[in-house]
User: Fold this.
Amino acid sequence: MATAKASPRIVQKRGVELLRDPELNRSTAFTEEDREAFGLTALLPSGVDTVDIQVQRARQQLDDKPTDLERYIYLISLADNDETLFFKVVMSDPAHFLPIVYDPTVGEACLKFGHIFRRPRGMYLSVKHKGRMAEVMRNWPIADVRVICVSSGGRILGLGDLGANGMGIPIGKLQLYTACAAVPPQHLLPIHMDVGTTNTGLINDPLYLGLRMPRISTEELDEVVDEFVEAVQQVFPGCCVHFEDWKGEDAMHLLARYRDRVCCYNDDIQGTAAVTLAGVLTALRVTGGRLRDQRFLFLGAGSAGIGIANLVASAMARAGLAEDQARSQISLFDVNGLLEPSRTDLFDFQKPYAHPHVPSRDFVAVIESVKPTAIIGVSTKGGAFTRKVVESMARINDRPIIFALSNPTERAECTPEQAYAWSGGRALYAAGVQFPSVRVGNRTLTPGQANNLYIFPAVGLAIYATRATRVTDEMFVQAAQALAEQVTEQELQSGLLYPPQTDILKTEVSIAVRVADLVFERGLAGVDRPSDVRVFVEAQLYTPAYTGNGTR
Assistant:
């Protein structure tokens, strides 16, 4: 694969200033000639390292850390000091490092964000900047920003409202754009939009870094986000806005508000939906069933659940069903029971799935009535898929599809051991986090991980490469299909519903090429269609290597 060459900004740096620039710093890898040329002589140890030696040293130091949180802190500090080395380390063994850089460790990091804070990354906008968003955003030193990941911290993983502590998510998400899909990091900008928090524990924490005020009203939020979205168009024309971890109602509302006006998407809604759809498509290779014939029951009817339901319904419609028929085969169950027409507490986005049925707060009874081929947990309620739930699914289906997608780990609706044991080893299982392999009889099964990192970096790469003007659900269906097709028969036999993360870059690039091809086909690209889309995409990939001199 080719390496992207960023256009250098002519900013000469020397000496300590150069060592403090994470984009330019090479630390002990500066050659003797570099040290003389850039005023670094005697500012570094005498030995000159190769980048491989630097990686070896970093990995040894990581191995010496007692916890994954300490490893996370070390890696973030490394990114602050030497961005190239950070990505070189993470990309050297993605299956090992991605759970440290992101989920599940990032959840703990967000809980303690104000306590482990070292150095600001990205931008911290707030309601106090209302009226001058564009002016403030021009403080960012790089003009060519292609993707912004922005969060209000309103719903972080399964942890609720973490306010400014949620900034760990946009930072981590954009690091995954690069670590998984080689999107050049200089074009990515994490932003926290501080609109207050409902978390009184944080407000009362002396180390909390955000505004100590209740969350603003929906009306004021619309005004703030409207101004922010408009400011993005002014300051970073053509930039894609990736909404992340907004409160459920806000997430659905904001996506509907902007999706047809600007280039934007919501990973919690569309990315989660696509990776779930990919797992279902892979599972159907085992069951032999058709997507259009499946019946789905969700535990959880928030933005994630509705987002998955909408994308699955869209994919079923593309497979030949009428849209109403597709939705009729999808049921949702939340804290107040089954969604059905007598419910008076439903949001508008939930009502298309309120099918005629007797009211019920008994999930097992609904399984027996609806007879789903797949249950999908997005409830954030650990252990909600009880033995009775799994056994009921196993009575109805020879190979029940059981996805326990809530995270962090303790929020999973059931563990793979439980799903396999209670189904007689017949469950097709995926979780939102990676569980270890499980011995089932004379077989060892590796549970699948329905992690959005398979989807959003690839979609981000396609958007970056094509300068897409809009992001559509069809692009996420395409990504799901491309992901499912990469699971080998051998991997299926071992229980996997997703490709291993050991070669995540190859997987992501193949998805991105398919999505980019669709962007060109639909006339949504901001650049001319190349003769070979794969060559075009691969030519823009970032490789963590020391290049250039003391300028950028």
Notes: Residues 50-262 form a domain with the Rossmann fold fold (CATH 3.40.50.10380). The first strand starts at residue 123 and ends at 126. Residues 1-10 have pLDDT under 50 and may be disordered. The radius of gyration is 24 Å.
